């Protein structure tokens, strides 16, 4: 199976797409989709609760993973029947061992091809790219530019 790719309008569209993919695992990038880069603890906690409430209702979904290269962590994790994993300082896309035990098939939802897209490709998951906001910090802006160069090499129109 080859990694699939779809470009979506944002997190809400990605959450709507998950049931159609029949995945068992979904990995969400935190910044900026769940909580913006410069947001505080409350925004992170609210964003995670919102995503869990929507994603946990997807039939067949077994794992919801939140993955960020930053060090921020939620103050609490809402209770759910689906396994929830939070990975801070995840080392995307270089480190993948922490994802290896997740059930397949899966999807990665993120804004950066150079991190989230490569992670999806390495895991043989579908990548749902949600474009970043117009205003972003310098580091993510550089990564986005790199990702636009990598996208045609990693993902074709036919999902491979």
Descriptive overview:
This protein starts with a strand and ends in a 6-residue tail after the last helix. It is globular, with a radius of gyration of 14 Å. β5, α3 and β6 form a beta-alpha-beta unit. The longest helix is centred in the C-terminal third of the chain and has 17 residues, at 138-154. By secondary structure, the chain is an alpha/beta fold. It has helices at residues 11-21, 41-55, 113-123, 138-154; strands spanning 5-7, 25-29, 63-67, 83-87, 106-110, 126-129. The chain is built from four helices and six strands. The chain has a single domain, classed as Rossmann fold (3-Layer(aba) Sandwich), CATH 3.40.50.
Which features would summarize this protein structure in a list?
160 residues, six-stranded parallel beta sheet, 4 helices, 6 strands, Rossmann fold, alpha/beta
Structure in a nutshell:
This protein has 160 residues and is of the alpha/beta class.
Outline the secondary-structure elements.
Blueprint: E1 5-7, H1 11-21, E2 25-29, H2 41-55, E3 63-67, E4 83-87, E5 106-110, H3 113-123, E6 126-129, H4 138-154
Parallel strand pairs: 1-6, 2-3, 2-5, 3-4, 5-6
Helix pairs in contact: 3-4
The description of the largest β-sheet is: 6 strands, parallel
The residue-averaged pLDDT reads 91
Beta-strand segment tally: 6
Termini separation (Å)? 9 Å
Question: What percentage of the residues does DSSP assign to strands (E)?
Answer: 15-25%
CATH class: Alpha Beta
CATH topology-level name: Rossmann fold
């Amino acid at each position: 199976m080859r990694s699939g790719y779809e470009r979506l309008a944002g997190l809400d569209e990605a959450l709507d797409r998950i049931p159609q993919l029949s995945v068992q695992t979904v990995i969400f990038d935190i910044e900026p989709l769940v909580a913006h880069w410069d947001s505080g603890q409350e925004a992170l906690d609210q964003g995670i609760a919102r995503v869990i409430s929507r994603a946990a209702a997807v039939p067949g979904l077994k794992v919801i993973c939140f993955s960020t290269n930053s060090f921020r962590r939620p103050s609490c994790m809402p209770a759910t029947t689906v396994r929830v994993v939070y990975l801070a300082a995840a080392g995307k896309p270089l480190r993948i061992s922490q994802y290896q035990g997740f059930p397949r098939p899966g999807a990665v939802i993120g804004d950066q091809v150079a991190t989230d897209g490569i992670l999806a490709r390495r895991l043989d998951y579908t990548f749902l790219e949600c474009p970043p906001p117009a205003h972003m910090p310098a580091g993510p802006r550089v990564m986005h530019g790199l990702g636009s160069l990598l996208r045609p090499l990693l993902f074709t129109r036919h999902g491979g």
